[in-house]
Design a protein that fits this description.
heterotrimer; A alpha+beta (321); B alpha+beta (300); C mainly beta (80); A: alpha+beta; seven-stranded mixed beta barrel; 14% helix; C: 80 residues; mainly beta; 0% helix; 45% strand
């Protein structure tokens, strides 16, 4: 059992997400940075689908009621056990009664705490991921608060030795990752030529509203071509007849919003491109006020990037010792 | 009105687009029509039947559809090739699907949405009218009463579900000349009561949960479209009630009936008035008024 | 006791000196604060979080303006 003493700003239980319900409006949820989530799980011997705690901007304070093996990955939040700093991207043994205390994120936005055995909260639609908007999954469908008690599953028999680490070359430097690649498309033809070009050249900054639903960005105004609006679309030039929004898609009510793991699944704003699957987790580590640049790529480059990312994760797993 | 028909629309060639490396988005038309929606419905139903490897989400939209794929299993171009094959083989007129008619009672001009819409007059096109007064005038109705009569005068088909879990976009089952159309708020509201019934573009919606919103607000239903705890009998199989292709019959009720139904919903005992029907686009197009009347007999 | 310390931001966001636009500020220069007293709010991810004094002292200066964008660990309030 893990007893939460302070929940931080926005800490939720997440796994690799729920699928098959997007058509009735249920987004995947799941870890925003699946690379950090997967390696945290690997370090403690869990499957990639095991549930971890995702902490945003500020970590939790929590006590372990039993001996446990844990790993903290993702954004650096200076974790300590009983006041002593512990390694991150490392498998760490804790004893019953130990207190884990984490601070604020000095690099990156989201950290992951995995516990050997995974967090054994009930599954909702085959996933333990928290989706706070309607209050499902995770711990009572909400962010963690002081007093919450999280059960831990059975410790896996085979796992890396305590002290095993992810080598530095596989640990992302979040501060450097300000460019995310996008495949333009869907309704990008609705943008003016200037705005379409500017989308992939302008400096965008992450606004304070950016969260698990969407990353709202600030920057130059984005303009759409004026037209006689089609029947059913609504009157604003940014409106289209309501359509499905891909996870990672960029919509532009006025300024761009990139939809993330708790995405709204559809609506009436023109989608003009999609952040590629390999780079969504990089965007998820951008902090409020950080810069973001979009780089246009074609779909084959996006597929190559996905493969490269998967190979890097495999190599990182293989290098853990 | 016996002679009224719905003329199928000639759709442009579909636009096959990538949503990054893991989604395929297909635009069937820029403007809304039953032809475009039924085509989206027919193709996504066929996609489900074919059980294509690597397709992980299958989402009909109002006049488009979207698939999420696992690119580790299937290349988006191979999915697009299969979709083109399906598109070529589909004849919407000959298509039919199992649907449900669902009775959705509505208290129009209810106190809760009224308070909300008055709070946000500064974000509305017409700060001096209610949303219903504005919509009635814009659509050429003499008064709110006759506008509400038109709104409940024919059922609305669920043409898409989403935004948040359980929110149905519904397109009224009447010929284009009688379709209602209203803009969304100039600037979205930061609050909307749960179960509010609204209208925007050419679509009616039911807001499953309280939250932001930009549709014109007309009333509130005492029944749920989302029940995350699945306590109501109608939610035994899914926490979401409406599915794409379902047919909603908005029925005007008074405050007493609203309160009575709401008590039953809160007690977890409310039985939805709904019935299984087979929906035939061809028969609907041929004689929509008669066909609607026939469909509604199932919940009469 | 003239040693100066600062209260730093626990998270990035937008800094507010008042609990509500119509309310007076949490603290003014010259006020004394105890550990745990709120000195401001940070808005991030559509939520507001109180910033509490992590030690006692007298407010000597505000190092950021109301509604400034702040980053984590940025000094906000100087205490003496």
């Amino acid at each position: 059992m893990i007893e939460i003493e302070a929940g931080g700003v926005a800490s939720t239980v997440q796994d690799d997400g729920r699928t098959g319900h997007y058509h009735i409006g249920v987004p995947p949820s799941g870890a925003m940075d699946s690379y950090a989530h997967a390696l945290a799980n690997h370090l403690v011997g869990n499957e990639e689908s095991a549930a971890t705690i995702e902490m945003t901007y500020q970590g939790i304070t929590a006590t372990f009621t039993e001996d446990a093996v844990i790993a903290v990955t993702g954004a650096n939040m200076s974790p300590t056990i009983e006041g002593e700093p512990i390694g991150t991207w490392e498998s760490v043994a804790v004893e019953a009664g130990d207190e884990l205390d984490m601070g604020f994120a000095t690099s990156g936005a989201r950290a992951y705490l995995a516990v050997a055995g995974g967090l054994d909260v009930p599954e909702v639609m085959d996933s333990r991921s928290t989706y706070t908007l309607v209050g499902i999954g995770g711990h009572e469908g909400r962010g963690l608060e002081a007093g919450d008690e999280l059960p831990v599953g059975a410790t896996p028999t085979e796992r890396p030795a305590v002290g095993a680490t992810v080598p530095d070359e596989y640990v992302p430097e979040y501060a450097d990752e300000e460019t995310v690649r996008v495949v333009l498309g869907m309704n990008d033809h609705r943008l003016t030529a200037e705005s379409r070009a500017e989308l992939c050249s302008a400096e965008w900054t992450v606004t304070p509203e950016a969260d698990r639903v969407g990353y709202r960005l600030d920057g130059p105004d984005v303009e759409f071509e004026e037209r006689d609006q089609p029947f059913g679309a609504g009157t604003d030039p940014s409106n289209v007849v309501d359509l499905g929004y891909p996870v990672g898609s960029i919509q532009v009510p006025q300024k761009p919003i990139v939809l993330m793991q708790d995405a709204v699944t559809g609506g009436g704003y023109a989608t003009v491109g999609t952040v590629i699957s390999a780079d969504r987790e990089r965007l998820a580590q951008r902090q409020t006020h950080d810069s973001v640049y979009f780089e246009e790529v074609d779909v084959d480059t996006a597929l190559d990037a996905r493969e490269t990312r998967a190979e890097r994760l495999d190599a990182a797993r293989a290098a853990v010792e | 009105m016996a002679s009224e028909r719905i003329t199928p629309v000639d759709l442009p060639d579909p636009r096959y687009e990538y949503g990054g490396d893991d989604h395929v988005f297909v635009d069937l038309a820029e403007e809304m029509s039953f032809t475009a929606n039924f085509k989206a419905m027919a193709i996504t139903q066929r996609v489900a039947e074919r059980d294509i490897d690597g397709v992980v989400e299958n989402c009909p939209g109002n006049a488009s559809y979207m698939l999420r794929i696992d690119p580790d299993v299937v290349h988006p171009d191979d999915v697009i090739a299969e979709l083109k094959d399906i598109e070529a083989s589909i004849d919407v007129a000959e298509y039919a699907w199992e649907s449900r008619v669902i009775d959705v009672p509505v208290l129009f001009e209810d106190p809760w949405t009224h308070e909300t819409l008055m709070d946000f007059r500064d974000r509305h096109q017409d700060p001096d009218a209610t949303d219903l007064e504005y919509s009635a005038e814009l659509n050429g109705y003499d008064d709110v009463e006759s506008f509400i009569d038109a709104f409940v005068g024919a059922p609305h088909m669920v043409t898409m579900v989403g935004f948040v879990p359980g929110l149905p976009w519904c397109f009224q089952m009447v010929p284009r000349e009688r379709q209602l159309e209203v803009p969304k708020y100039v600037e979205p509201r930061t609050a909307t009561p749960s179960r509010a019934v609204g209208f925007g573009g050419a679509f009616s919606v039911v807001y499953p949960v309280a939250g932001a919103g930009g549709y014109q607000l007309y009333g509130r239903t005492p029944v749920e479209v989302l029940d995350v705890d699945q306590e109501l009998p109608a939610f035994e199989d899914s926490m979401v009630l409406p599915n794409p292709g379902d047919i909603i019959n908005y029925r005007r009720i008074d405050r007493d009936e609203y309160d009575a139904i709401r008590d039953e919903v809160e007690a977890g005992t409310y039985e939805y008035d709904m019935a299984d029907v087979t929906f035939s686009p061809e028969e609907f197009f041929e004689a929509p008024n008669e066909y609607n009347a026939q469909l509604l007999e199932a919940v009469a | 006791m003239s040693e100066k310390t600062t209260i730093n931001a626990p998270m990035p966001g937008v800094f507010y000196r008042r609990p509500d636009p119509e309310d007076p500020p949490f603290v003014e220069v010259g006020d004394s604060v105890d550990v745990g007293d709120p000195v401001g709010l940070v808005e991030v991810m559509k939520n507001f979080h109180e910033i509490e004094a992590d030690h006692a002292g007298t407010v000597a200066a505000f190092l950021v303006e109301n509604e400034d964008e702040i980053t984590a660990d940025q000094p906000l309030v100087e205490l003496e």
